[in-house]
Design goal:
By secondary structure, the protein is mainly alpha-helical. Helix content is 89%, strand content 0%. α2 packs antiparallel against α9 and α5 runs antiparallel to α7. It is flat and about 180 Å long. Keywords: Cell projection, Cilium, Coiled coil, Cytoplasm, Cytoskeleton, Flagellum.
């Protein structure tokens, strides 16, 4: 009876496992048909890493230059507020342009305040403002706005000529407002987005769109398959619960059978205990004989141990003597090492003292050199100016000498021509007289 119930229980378990394996196989097939390969996701990434056309590079360069200019423009108020800090590093021309820009900004704020009666509470209550004055103020504001824009362009042009100044003002990047920082971040994101878009050709964009549409269709199919699988899963869970009820009934029957088996097994256990007691008596007799034998072996081993102890004590005495000798040698070596180390320590302290004295002397010499350096630079500049003046004088003297030589040569040639003319006239006069 019990064996039949166990067999039925095993058959039910095998049927449940087959149903679960079938559902899992169907799910695996659907997943294999619908899930895309991981390598296929690389289609969404751009094929090229660099721009192919000059127009695209120009577009990217325009965005990058715009972000650089905005980063400089957003730091202009901070530079004007801290002009003493940046006056030496930025140079005279750039600082003059920045001061002029600050002055224009103040005038523009004043013009706006005057237009909207900001800061003039006496005029705020007067609603009868002349239209001519209003137009004039607006024209003044437009002129100031144009001048403000040209000032910004001029400042950017000067910063472009001086790249080191751009690097210096980056130390004040923390002074930007949150809006300016967000603007620069948006421009950087725009540059990355445009760069990615320019890397993709229209044909690649079309292929990606088609690929995304395929993925959407596959996703829909997968959702449908998941819905069907969920229905199957609920049915399988229901079947499993039914099977569990059946199995619980089988387990209850098996427990009853086990109680009956316990009653039958008690007689069997009693018989086994009697056999075990008989076996224990036989084993006890055997163990007593083995114990006597082991006692004899222990006596023999003890005699051997005593003999070995006497032998080892003699060797121990000789080893102790050797150990004492080695310890004395080690103490001597340690004393010698301590003496040498003390000598080296004294020598090190002496060298350290000399080093400190030399460091003090070196600092004094560096201070003297620091005081003499501006005088040296001034003397070098004066010598340079004197050499330039000397070269200018030498060049002028060389030009004057050259001019004098040319004048003298011209004068000598003129004199020679005059003498030749006079000689020709004399020769003609003599010839006429001879005739």
């Amino acid at each position: 009876m019990a064996t039949e119930i166990i067999v039925q229980h095993q058959q039910l378990e095998s049927n449940a496992e087959e149903n679960i394996s079938k559902s899992s196989n169907n799910y695996d097939v659907s997943v294999q048909n619908t899930a895309p390969n991981m390598d296929a996701l690389r289609i969404l990434e751009p094929v090229r890493k660099k721009l192919a056309s000059i127009e695209a590079e120009r577009i990217i360069s325009v965005i990058e230059k715009t972000t650089d200019k905005i980063q400089i423009v957003t730091l202009i108020p901070y530079i004007i507020a801290n002009h003493d800090r940046f006056s030496v590093a930025l140079g005279l021309e750039l600082m003059c342009a920045l001061r002029e820009h600050g002055r224009l900004e103040k005038h523009l704020d004043f013009a706006f305040g005057k237009l909207f009666n900001v800061g003039y509470p006496e005029q705020a209550n007067e609603n009868s403002i002349d239209k001519v004055e209003m137009k004039k103020k607006e024209e003044d504001i437009q002129i100031l706005q144009k001048a403000f824009g040209t000032s910004v362009k001029n400042i950017l042009r000067l910063f472009k000529r001086n790249p080191s100044a751009c690097q210096i003002i980056q130390s004040g990047c923390h002074a930007r407002s949150r809006i300016c920082v967000d603007l620069t971040l948006v421009l950087m994101e725009l540059r990355d987005f445009v760069f990615e878009r320019l890397l993709i050709t229209p044909s690649e964009d079309k292929e990606k769109f088609e690929y995304v549409q395929k993925i959407i269709k596959r996703d829909k199919q997968n959702t449908e398959i998941i819905a069907t699988l969920e229905v199957e899963l609920t049915a399988a869970i229901q079947n499993k619960e039914n099977e569990m009820l059946k199995k619980n009934e089988i387990i209850r029957k098996l427990k009853n059978n086990l109680l009956q088996l316990e009653l039958f097994s008690q007689d069997y256990i009693r018989q086994i205990k009697q056999d075990a007691e008989k076996q224990q008596l036989n084993d006890q007799k055997d163990s007593e004989g083995k114990i006597a034998k082991y006692h004899e072996e222990i006596g023999q081993l003890r005699t051997q141990l005593n003999n070995m102890i006497t032998e080892h004590r003699a060797s121990e005495v000789s080893l102790r003597k050797r150990k004492y000798k080695i310890e004395t040698e080690i103490e001597n070596w340690i004393q010698k090492y301590d003496a040498d180390l003390q000598e080296k320590q004294d020598e090190y302290e002496q060298l350290l003292k000399i080093h400190k004295d030399e460091l003090i002397l070196l600092r004094e010499l560096e201070q003297k050199i620091g005081t003499l350096e501006p005088e040296y630079t001034q003397i070098v500049e004066e010598r340079k100016i004197k050499e330039e003046k000397k070269k200018a004088k030498e060049h002028q003297a060389f030009l004057m000498g050259k001019a004098a030589i040319t004048i003298q040569s011209f004068w000598k040639g003129y004199k020679v021509r005059q003498l030749m003319k006079a000689l020709k006239k004399k020769k003609k006069g003599k010839g006429k007289k001879k005739k």
